[in-house]
Amino acid sequence: MSEGIGWKLIEELQRDPKLRKALAETLTYEIPEILLKDKRVRLTIVRSLIREVATKEDIEKTREHVERVRQELRQEIARVRQELAQKIEALEKEFRSKFEDLSNRVARLEGQVALLIKVFIAFNVPILIGIIGILLKMILAP
Protein backbone atom coordinates (compact mmCIF):
# COMPACT_ATOMS: atom_id res chain seq x y z
CA MET A 1 0.00 0.00 0.00
CA SER A 2 1.44 3.34 -0.98
CA GLU A 3 1.93 6.03 1.62
CA GLY A 4 -0.70 8.29 -0.01
CA ILE A 5 -3.42 5.63 0.15
CA GLY A 6 -2.58 4.89 3.79
CA TRP A 7 -2.95 8.55 4.74
CA LYS A 8 -6.18 8.79 2.79
CA LEU A 9 -7.47 5.75 4.71
CA ILE A 10 -6.49 7.37 8.04
CA GLU A 11 -8.17 10.66 7.05
CA GLU A 12 -11.31 8.78 6.02
CA LEU A 13 -11.34 6.91 9.35
CA GLN A 14 -10.95 10.18 11.26
CA ARG A 15 -13.91 11.74 9.42
CA ASP A 16 -16.35 8.84 9.59
CA PRO A 17 -17.21 7.40 13.05
CA LYS A 18 -19.26 4.58 11.51
CA LEU A 19 -16.29 3.52 9.40
CA ARG A 20 -14.02 3.58 12.48
CA LYS A 21 -16.51 1.42 14.37
CA ALA A 22 -16.79 -1.07 11.51
CA LEU A 23 -12.98 -1.31 11.25
CA ALA A 24 -12.63 -1.77 15.01
CA GLU A 25 -15.25 -4.53 15.02
CA THR A 26 -13.56 -6.24 12.09
CA LEU A 27 -10.15 -6.02 13.74
CA THR A 28 -11.53 -7.27 17.04
CA TYR A 29 -12.73 -10.45 15.41
CA GLU A 30 -9.74 -10.91 13.14
CA ILE A 31 -6.69 -9.73 15.11
CA PRO A 32 -3.99 -12.35 14.72
CA GLU A 33 -2.27 -13.47 17.89
CA ILE A 34 0.98 -12.06 16.57
CA LEU A 35 -0.40 -8.51 16.92
CA LEU A 36 -1.38 -9.18 20.52
CA LYS A 37 2.18 -10.25 21.25
CA ASP A 38 3.46 -6.91 19.93
CA LYS A 39 3.99 -4.59 22.92
CA ARG A 40 3.03 -1.44 20.96
CA VAL A 41 -0.25 -2.95 19.75
CA ARG A 42 -1.14 -4.15 23.25
CA LEU A 43 -0.31 -0.70 24.65
CA THR A 44 -2.50 0.98 22.01
CA ILE A 45 -5.39 -1.36 22.79
CA VAL A 46 -5.00 -0.80 26.54
CA ARG A 47 -4.85 3.00 26.07
CA SER A 48 -8.02 2.96 23.99
CA LEU A 49 -9.78 0.82 26.58
CA ILE A 50 -8.57 2.78 29.59
CA ARG A 51 -10.45 5.86 28.42
CA GLU A 52 -13.66 3.96 29.20
CA VAL A 53 -12.57 2.79 32.65
CA ALA A 54 -13.80 4.76 35.65
CA THR A 55 -11.10 6.08 37.95
CA LYS A 56 -11.28 6.27 41.73
CA GLU A 57 -11.84 9.99 41.28
CA ASP A 58 -14.77 9.31 38.91
CA ILE A 59 -16.28 6.89 41.40
CA GLU A 60 -15.80 9.37 44.26
CA LYS A 61 -17.44 12.18 42.23
CA THR A 62 -20.33 9.88 41.41
CA ARG A 63 -20.68 8.86 45.04
CA GLU A 64 -20.66 12.52 46.11
CA HIS A 65 -23.26 13.33 43.48
CA VAL A 66 -25.47 10.46 44.63
CA GLU A 67 -25.08 11.63 48.23
CA ARG A 68 -26.09 15.20 47.24
CA VAL A 69 -29.12 13.87 45.39
CA ARG A 70 -30.06 11.74 48.41
CA GLN A 71 -29.77 14.76 50.70
CA GLU A 72 -31.88 16.88 48.34
CA LEU A 73 -34.44 14.09 48.20
CA ARG A 74 -34.52 13.85 52.01
CA GLN A 75 -35.03 17.61 52.24
CA GLU A 76 -37.79 17.50 49.64
CA ILE A 77 -39.51 14.62 51.44
CA ALA A 78 -39.28 16.54 54.74
CA ARG A 79 -40.74 19.64 53.07
CA VAL A 80 -43.60 17.65 51.54
CA ARG A 81 -44.30 15.94 54.89
CA GLN A 82 -44.40 19.30 56.66
CA GLU A 83 -46.68 20.76 53.98
CA LEU A 84 -48.93 17.71 54.18
CA ALA A 85 -49.06 17.92 58.00
CA GLN A 86 -50.07 21.59 57.77
CA LYS A 87 -52.81 20.79 55.28
CA ILE A 88 -54.08 17.92 57.44
CA GLU A 89 -54.09 20.21 60.48
CA ALA A 90 -56.05 22.86 58.56
CA LEU A 91 -58.55 20.23 57.42
CA GLU A 92 -58.91 18.94 61.00
CA LYS A 93 -59.64 22.48 62.24
CA GLU A 94 -62.19 23.00 59.49
CA PHE A 95 -63.78 19.62 60.24
CA ARG A 96 -63.97 20.39 63.98
CA SER A 97 -65.52 23.78 63.26
CA LYS A 98 -68.13 22.29 60.92
CA PHE A 99 -68.80 19.43 63.35
CA GLU A 100 -69.32 21.87 66.23
CA ASP A 101 -71.62 23.96 64.04
CA LEU A 102 -73.59 20.86 63.09
CA SER A 103 -73.76 19.76 66.74
CA ASN A 104 -75.10 23.19 67.73
CA ARG A 105 -77.72 23.06 64.98
CA VAL A 106 -78.82 19.56 66.04
CA ALA A 107 -79.04 20.71 69.66
CA ARG A 108 -81.23 23.67 68.61
CA LEU A 109 -83.43 21.33 66.56
CA GLU A 110 -83.77 18.97 69.52
CA GLY A 111 -84.83 21.90 71.70
CA GLN A 112 -87.37 23.04 69.12
CA VAL A 113 -88.78 19.51 68.75
CA ALA A 114 -89.06 19.19 72.56
CA LEU A 115 -90.89 22.53 72.70
CA LEU A 116 -93.18 21.46 69.87
CA ILE A 117 -94.02 18.24 71.74
CA LYS A 118 -94.77 20.19 74.94
CA VAL A 119 -97.00 22.62 73.03
CA PHE A 120 -98.75 19.71 71.31
CA ILE A 121 -99.38 18.01 74.61
CA ALA A 122 -100.45 21.25 76.27
CA PHE A 123 -103.09 21.89 73.60
CA ASN A 124 -104.22 18.33 72.94
CA VAL A 125 -104.42 16.84 76.44
CA PRO A 126 -107.38 19.03 77.48
CA ILE A 127 -109.13 18.21 74.20
CA LEU A 128 -108.50 14.48 74.71
CA ILE A 129 -109.77 14.68 78.32
CA GLY A 130 -112.89 16.47 77.07
CA ILE A 131 -113.50 13.83 74.41
CA ILE A 132 -112.98 11.03 76.96
CA GLY A 133 -115.40 12.76 79.32
CA ILE A 134 -118.05 13.06 76.59
CA LEU A 135 -117.59 9.41 75.63
CA LEU A 136 -117.90 8.35 79.28
CA LYS A 137 -121.15 10.36 79.69
CA MET A 138 -122.55 8.75 76.58
CA ILE A 139 -121.72 5.29 77.84
CA LEU A 140 -122.84 5.84 81.43
CA ALA A 141 -125.95 7.90 80.74
CA PRO A 142 -129.27 5.96 80.80
Which secondary structure elements does this structure contain, and how are they paired or packed?
Layout lengths: L2 H13 L1 H14 L2 H5 L1 H12 L5 H85 L2
Overview of this protein structure:
- This protein is an all-alpha fold and 142 residues long.
- The chain has a domain at 1-53.
- Helix content is 91%, strand content 0%.
- The protein has 5 helices and no strands.
- The protein has helices at 3-15, 17-30, 33-37, 39-50, 56-140.
- The longest helix is centred in the C-terminal third of the chain and has 85 residues, at 56-140.
- It is rod-shaped and about 155 Å long.
- The mean pLDDT is 86.
Brief summary of the model shown:
By secondary structure, the chain is an all-alpha fold.
What is the alpha-carbon Rg in Å? 49 Å
How many helix segments?
5
Shape from CA axes? rod-shaped
The low-confidence runs, each spanning 5 or more residues with pLDDT under 50, are: none
Oligomer: single chain
> Distance between termini?
153 Å
Q: What order do the helices and strands follow?
A: HHHHH
Strand content: under 5%
- Tell me about the biggest sheet? none
What is the number of strand segments? Answer: 0
How much helix, percentage-wise, in residues? over 70%
- The secondary-structure class comes to mainly alpha
Mean pLDDT: 86
